[in-house]
User: Which sequence fits this backbone?
């Protein structure tokens, strides 16, 4: 589906029109360019766009099929970029992923989006209001989209930081919680984020270094900024992952400590019952000569004896921390 | 065994003939080449082929002996590639491996296959129907075979993703499962895949970079695509491996939690029996003066007392989550 | 807020004045420079400073927003440095973080500080008393601030060394301590320190290598010294982290050993009660012919028998180390 | 001790003679060379050889003292190589190590061997029958020896693969085995192999790259082949080590699972005894009015009741998988 | 404190004198040099030496303050080296550390030592008796001292190998040992050694590569030898560390296995008591009609029954390995 298509000149949107053939024909100025945005295009749609803008078949194939790795490839003077998009679904505490592929030549940008999240419409609107960035041409569009995507990485990472904090609280609470499943899920989501972030670092570094002709000299600091954000996301993810591993070990330690505490309490509780049982057994013996048995207060004496022994054990265990 | 042998010219199959001597003699055009496919050849077969095409003895030795490492080596203007092939056997949830060795000169390709899976016949048919790729000559054949093999890596990896998902479900189910053996087997298979994928990355990178004369300039993007698939396979394997390690730890944690739960239930159950036993012991004492013993309803009273105590403990344990 | 602002010439403070426009106008000598220090400036304050000194908008944005990664970036002949500051809060055994951003051109330094700790006032005073370092111009200011910040890293690391020593003592004491939460917190703080230290290494290395024009040749050994301190901080943090991991494992082992000891003690204690109970049960049997029952000293005999059996078991368990 | 000493010319052994002075004097042709093989030489023997062939004192010292690291060093146009030799002692399932040091100049090879295994005699015989390799001169001798040593690495690794398979079977058997000691020993042996293999990779890579003048251009593919075998050994060792770690964790998990199973069985067994004991206690109470006590079949009734309760519990536990 | 000071010429000690000013004035020959050895000098002492030999203030500061990182720095044509010294204190099975700093110019060496161990006196004596090494001038002194220090690293590592062997024996003995504290301490000491060894590798590599003018061409093989010893020390430490981690895991496994064994023994022991108690309970019941109670040998029968049951259980448990 063609979401939007427009001609840009001197840092401004000149004309929006889904007839990209006509728009491209009009893009005759040195800095003119067309930006066509597609969302999950059909084979036919992309084939036609590919023909008009001369896109390389391998890149087109990658753009249509989802589940690609983030990457940047040059085909002649055209650059092809694949990004993973991430967003956090609050209801399910889950990270979801989508994909954006972009083709940028000297006079056009084709963006292809897969998945629900991270629509590019607002990115385009924001870009259209910034003459400085839009003035960088297709390189500016690349920057605007990548910057938007990477900012969302940072949002997702911030949510995960909150999740890790919650797990941490849960692990070290005195409640008997079973946090292993939640830690596992979170580790899995960190792996998801890592799969989006890590392979993107090299493409962004190349854009910042100026390996790519489409990106003008003065646009490079912008990509350095993006590279920096990516590095921050990657470092935070690594550090969260390490923390989760430690939290997991701590969880195991807590279980062990609780197990030990439980065992001591159980055995102390058993002692409170077993020793009086021995006393009862003694006074249940059938010896002919057992003076206590004839005492008027023999029975209350035995009960009090049991009570005292139990109380004494209780005090002993309390003092030694077993109860 | 010679599986197939043909002369290719201008991106088309010209003539199939097992007499490779004759075919090679006819391959006089600049872009002509012969592709001979062998399956577990005898010493004599390979020796004759080696003589006709001038293959280096060390490479021939490697091609005949299975269990080589994936690699690419240049002998003069000839290139020698070894690949591990992988396929997933559904019945046994197992990954099996085979091997393909290829010699590519400017006018010939010799492919040698070991093991049952990954026959090359369909790869050859697919290639013969693609003039574009076949037009790249021996480099195109290299691409077609490596691409086919790497696509099968991705298939195997997808199956392993499913296996990991199953283990995950099993680990976090409330059933008392013993998943350690299955996790171990899966880790072993991931190691197998890694042994196929990782060493292949450098050869493919060299083919994509144009280190190898046999691969024409315009064929390089195809190898970059393969390199990308390899990277994806490697990343997925690494991430599955890390997930399995976490799943394993979670499995250990689950066992500990269950052990603790069991212990608490056991001790609670014991308490339900031991306290009434004490009461019975008390009324089994032989004191002369025990008023209850003479009561008409002394016996039912004792039974009810036992029942009440047991019920009280039951309620207490239920409330505190011990039962 | 403008904290301090002054003109420096020939290694000495010439004039302090918050009117930085006027000061910059006066800085006409080859080695003259202005140093303006800001603390959490408002958008307007930084915007005005940025205009006067011609700071790049991306760098200004980074300087205003906290939570940046340590980094060094060059914009033309200007260099922009971001540092994390660390300090140790004794009361809470916690590491806190702040941030300093610095812009250094050939004739000015703008420093922007976030957070409570690590004020730069004393660094400025120390610098003003050192003609040698101040004579290096803006590069000298960079050095003085970074050196100060890195020295505080080393102080924080020293405090953490003490904390790790305490945990170590606690883990291997015979007390039943639950050290996992504390180890976790410490690991988290080490991660905080690492996030400040590691990304700073590359910027300092670049300053030491002379990549940055603002740093004169003869100032480089000073940055090599800082790089060395950073390396020491990083190595100590890594080594503490590894020690904590080992301490954690040792903590787990201690819990296991204690659990085993407790279990043996419990079972030994139980034996001391259960065996006499069996004896009491035997003499509670109702056989017509039980000679002991008729003995005059049958009852004391039974009690002594119970006592001897218990004492015998006690001695046995003591000897075998079970009690 | 001088094991063998001979003059080689044009790929053939010309003359064997322990008088290496004389032999060297005769080695006047461009491709002539002397190969002298020593086994644990005395100080005097090696000193004399060193003088005749002009060996560097540091290298000589390394050759005499065992326990060196595998390495390659150039002294002028002479190359000095140290190798660790490995062999597997079946009786003790152990890996043993020795050492070979080699000096190679343009017209001589001095090999010095330590330890019992890996004699070089058969390597020399094999080499003498291969004119192609021997024709490469001292470089060919280097190749023949290193190839022989590395092939033995692969043999040792194959034995270790078998050992790991055995441990794997043992860990996942239902027998109660204590595999930790065996896993430890195997990890130790893998470390031994790694210490031989890893440092050798760089020297062999240098020989394959042609850094060393003694190795002629056409001999390099042979060293690339050795490098490949080394890589295979290293990868297998790494992968075995990772598998052993997983097997170890699985072993721990098995112990935990068994512990849990045992605990459940024990508690179930206890319940089968404790509940009848409670019944016996009840009928041992001394109430005046206990109708059952007067029943003619009261005693059998009580016994049957106990039996039924025990059987009921047994069935319950069987059904719930506790027994 | 000035420990020794002398002038060296042509590989020989010419004159010892603590008046280093005078000595330096006499060192006019091309290869003359002065070596002054200091031990924990006062500020004044080092300041005077620094003035005489023109030492850089930053280096002097590092030399006076202990706890520096091993490093090599060049100031003009002077080189400054910091080394950590290690020695093993047998009584306490502990590794202690000291420090040596050295300044080497073309005509002088200043060595500054901190800590008790590793005196340099014997190194100087050994050096003075070796004309070859002393003939390399200040570079020779550097070599002699570094070689001495690194040889002591190897001694320390050898002691640690012994310690690891002892722990290994202890872990796998059948004794109930608590080895975690000892493993922890040893890991800590390995970290100490690593902190001395690892950062020294790069300086020694630079000396071996000839980056440093003070080291003449023909002295480089000596530093390559030192680099080799360092690599050996580093590899051994890494391998010991990995072994200790495995030993630790094995220790945990042993505790678990013992815990399981203990639990089985305890429960078996309990069964031997609990089942006879049930029998006693049965014969303590008060039924009117219990034939056994009237038997003449009823009592011995009951005792024998108890004994038989206990013996039967014992045999059963023995057979199934529970006792």
Assistant:
């Amino acid at each position: 589906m063609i979401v939007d298509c427009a001609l840009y000149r001197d840092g401004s949107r000149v004309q929006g029109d889904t007839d990209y053939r006509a728009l491209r024909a009009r893009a005759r100025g040195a800095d003119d360019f067309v930006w066509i945005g597609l969302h999950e295009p059909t084979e036919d749609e992309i084939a036609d766009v590919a023909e008009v803008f001369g896109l390389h078949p391998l890149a087109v194939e990658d753009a249509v099929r989802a589940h690609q790795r983030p990457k940047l490839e040059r085909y002649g003077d055209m650059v092809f970029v694949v990004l993973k998009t991430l967003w956090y679904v609050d209801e399910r505490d889950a990270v979801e992923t989508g994909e954006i592929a972009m083709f940028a030549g000297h006079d056009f940008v084709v963006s292809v989006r897969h998945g629900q999240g991270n629509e590019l419409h607002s990115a385009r609107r924001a870009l259209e209001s910034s003459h400085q960035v839009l003035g960088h041409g297709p390189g500016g569009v690349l920057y605007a989209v990548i910057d938007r995507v990477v900012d969302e990485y940072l949002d997702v990472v911030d949510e995960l930081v909150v999740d890790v904090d919650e797990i941490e609280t849960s692990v070290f609470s005195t409640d008997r919680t079973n946090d292993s499943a939640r830690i596992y899920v979170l580790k899995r989501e960190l792996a998801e984020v890592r799969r989006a972030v890590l392979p993107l670092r090299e493409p962004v570094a190349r854009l910042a270094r100026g390996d790519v002709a489409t990106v003008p000299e003065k646009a490079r600091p912008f990509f350095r900024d993006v590279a920096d954000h990516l590095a921050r996301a990657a470092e935070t993810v690594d550090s969260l992952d390490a923390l989760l591993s430690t939290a997991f070990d701590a969880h195991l330690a807590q279980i062990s400590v609780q197990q030990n505490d439980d065992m001591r309490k159980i055995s102390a509780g058993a002692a409170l019952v077993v020793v009086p049982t021995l006393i009862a057994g003694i006074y249940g013996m059938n010896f002919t000569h057992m003076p206590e048995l004839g005492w008027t207060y023999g029975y209350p004496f035995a009960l009090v004896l049991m009570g005292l022994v139990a109380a004494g054990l209780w005090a002993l265990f309390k003092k030694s921390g077993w109860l």
Q: What stands out?
A: Chain E has a mean pLDDT of 88. Chain E touches chain D at residues 168, 172, 221-222, 224-225, 228, 231-232, 235, 239, 242-243, 246-247, 249-250, 252-254, 256-257, 259-260, 263-264, 267, 270-271, 274-275, 277-278, 281-282, 284-291, 321 (CB under 8 Å). The radius of gyration of chain E is 35 Å.
